[in-house]
Specification:
eight-stranded parallel barrel, binds manganese (II) ion, 2 domains, four-stranded antiparallel beta sheet, 10 helices, Alpha-Beta Plaits, alpha/beta, elongated, TIM Barrel, binds phosphoenolpyruvate
């Protein structure tokens, strides 16, 4: 920790701070500048009591941590990129992966038609919501277990592994029985009990960024998965809420190089929730590939205008196939397969 003292304080006030630093188990290292004094408190912040209490002292200007609060997700802990394998599909390796499918599973025909078409276009993982977190309780909440069964049927038919959202701790075992990757939604990214329940199933966990979540908070939420003996974590940027109204959310592509620098876990981009508009999905995907994302999560529907959720942002099967072709040269230029 670095403690910056206010200018012009008395020797007695300075000594009191030094005394407290020692009392809390740190070794003070005093640096006197012309205008003010800075104290480096040497000691492991993870095993010592916090010095943040000094923030409230009148002679203290600021207290800054030097150590990161997350450990297992950090690059420091694991310098090489982590890869996650689901039924032979490796995420985070040389091959760029695309997860695609409807926002919600609505019927057998809808999920089968989509699964076959996205596979044909080159997607390697099938997405689809069976339990849907809707803003209004009066909107379609998903088909639940029936939806999971339809996803499993589509996997059997196409061989594509399945990703679906886990909405409640109570459903952890049920969803893990059918899904290959558990998605933790933006509205639940700091629901730590849910993260623990997801981690404990042993299935890979894709952690969406919360609507108002700082990257540090997101990394710390990911830490819950790894610290519960599940090394298979994927971060997924899906847009954060800002003052902008042209898009549903503001897709923060700067999260890609930041997560890459800070963490060894793969980063996935969801341009569908990110923009809320099908017409922006192509551009955002291209940006994500160019900026080093490991995978995309894209909403695709055979008839978007008739979709029971997120109608405005789902691509048609034809548009998805066109997008996959357009992405090819970018994937290669980014050094991926
Ligand atoms: C979704 O993927 O359909 C979804 C609801 O995502 P998010 O949690 O990012 O809103
Ligand atoms: Mn959706």
């Amino acid at each position: 920790m670095i403690i910056v003292l206010k200018p012009g304080i008395t020797k007695k006030d300075e000594a009191a701070v030094i005394q407290e630093i020692k009392h809390l188990g740190y070794k003070p290292h005093i640096m006197r500048g012309i205008a003010r004094t800075v104290i480096g408190a040497i000691g492991d912040e993870q095993t010592h009591q916090t010095l943040e209490v000094l923030t409230g002292w009148p002679q203290v200007e600021s207290v800054m941590p030097v150590q990161k609060r997350y450990k297992l997700v950090s690059r420091e802990a694991h310098p090489a990129d982590s890869t996650i394998e689901v039924n032979g599909v490796i995420i985070g390796g040389p091959k760029f992966q695309v997860m695609a499918g409807p926002c919600s599973v609505e019927s057998e025909e809808q999920v089968m038609e989509t699964a076959i078409a996205v596979k044909e276009a080159g997607a390697t993982i099938l997405r689809g919501g069976a339990f849907k977190p809707r803003t209004s309780p009066y909107e379609f909440q998903g088909l639940g277990k029936k939806g999971l069964q339809l996803l499993a049927k589509a996997r059997k038919e196409t061989g594509l592994p399945v990703i679906t959202e886990l909405l409640s701790e109570d459903h952890a075992e049920l969803v893990a029985e059918y899904a290959d990757i558990l998605q933790i939604g933006a509205r639940n990214s700091q629901n730590f009990q849910l993260l623990i329940a997801a981690a404990k199933t042993g299935k890979p966990v894709l952690l969406k960024r919360g609507l108002a979540m700082r990257i540090e908070e997101w990394l710390l939420a990911g830490e819950y998965v790894l610290s519960n003996e599940n090394p298979n974590l994927l971060f997924c940027e899906r847009g954060i809420r800002t003052f902008e109204t042209y898009t549903r959310n503001t897709l923060d592509l700067s999260a890609i190089p930041i997560i890459k620098r800070e963490s060894h876990c793969p980063i996935v981009i969801d341009p569908s929730q990110g923009a809320g508009r099908a017409d922006l999905v192509h551009s955002l995907c291209k940006g994500a590939v160019a900026m080093g994302a490991d995978a995309l999560l894209i909403e695709v529907h055979p008839n978007p205008s008739g979709a029971r959720s997120d109608a405005a942002q789902q691509l048609t099967l034809h548009d998805f196939s066109r997008l996959m072709k357009e992405l090819q040269p970018l994937i290669q230029a980014a050094g991926r397969e």
